Amino acid sequence: MLDFILYTCSYGLVTDHTVVSVERLHNTNYRFEWWFQTGDALISRSRSVAAYQFLKKNRAPYLIFLDGDIIFTPGDIEKLLDGLSGGLDVVGGLYPVRGGTFLAQRGWNGHFHISGNLEEVQFVSTGFLGISRNILEKITQDMPVLNEGSWSECYPIFEVGRYENIYISEDWDFCNKARQAGSKVYAHTGIQLQHLKEKVYTTQEAIEKMTWKPESPDLWNDLAEYLGKEPKELVPQAVATKQLGDRWKEWQGTSEDFYKDPEIGQLYLYDLVGFNSAKFYKEQRMAGIKNAEHLNILDVGCGIGTALIELSWKNKNLVGYDISETALDFARFRATKTGARNVSFTSEFPQDLSKFDLVIAIDTLEHIEDLRSFLLKLGRGMKEGARLYHFDCFWEHEVSPMHFDHSKNIDDWLKEAGLVIFDNHWCVKGGNYANGSR
Q1: What is the total count of domains within the chain?
Q2: Fewer C-beta neighbours within 10 Å, C or N terminus of the chain?
Q3: Cβ contacts of residue 384 below 8 Å, gap of 6+?
Q4: Could you say which DSSP state residue 106 is in?
Q5: Cα–Cα distance for residue pair 262/246, rounded to 1 Å
Q6: What domain range includes position 28?
């Protein structure tokens, strides 16, 4: 028996790039045949006929739809088959549409996590889609045969129709049918294909241009959901901030232990949610970094992750560091809920700072008692040319008595750490520094 049937439904010609992609498969150990359904301008009928022929001939366990303008690798096929052979019935790969501004796949609530692995989604498209014989047999169990005796004999597996007051395409209709038959639909986010139109569009371009990046979230509702409470049960920010100040005045331990304490962490959630929700947070705190693109970023004192979640859509690898496990847990909850990609959070200070292009510290440095030692450690680890963006609040001791005032020394410590100061917020790591001197 064959491993799979590759099926292309195309009214026009198959591109040379797709032919080359298929030819590369012949250099692998896969046993497959490439079938065609051509000349039919009605794509829903064409795909239904293809699936019908696949079921009737019974020569392979899996059907893989391949559009004639998709560029793929044997590794993409391998990932698709790994999901199918692992027991999944519907697995698709990612590819761009609409001039590289959207993905052809849709996650639940309009977004999904680009993790590099399998992710359950609402809809996948047939440009690169693996389907098990099992789910096709379930879907067609009670279906009538249409156009019987003609070239277009088929089951109505793929139909354009209305769903929840919108029109959906034949492949998304198939996803609904698969769910109704008891299966789930998956996209393998590690399969990132190229789509050849008037130019080659890459999946990465579409991800960066996607309009489904999170809108400004209601952090209070997120916090209520995270804590399992009603919004009215949450502690107001002003109350939490005062309680934090009172606790600090009574605190007998170190400042580090203060922020690691779980009870303090719970109060800090209310304080940080109120602070991050404020209009000035994005307009002032994040103003200098809002246009950061294609960078590896470390957020020191990331709190509940707001900056990194906002930046995740146009950057490479983002790491949030904080000593409060309570804050980090809520940050992870938010990242998962928004589908933020390439973001991780840790309470372990990164050992290799040289991999980061940008280090940010928003309202963080005033919380560090021995700031000089911290900045020297940071400067020693950063690579030449890497930048530091810091927004400090060394004042407001009446509201936040846990702030340490380093305003008189911070510039000297930054220079000692090998950082060249541009202004009150920006530094860059210079070269050839030894023991704090050039």
Answers
A1: 2
A2: N
A3: 429, 430, 431
A4: B
A5: 16
A6: 4-209
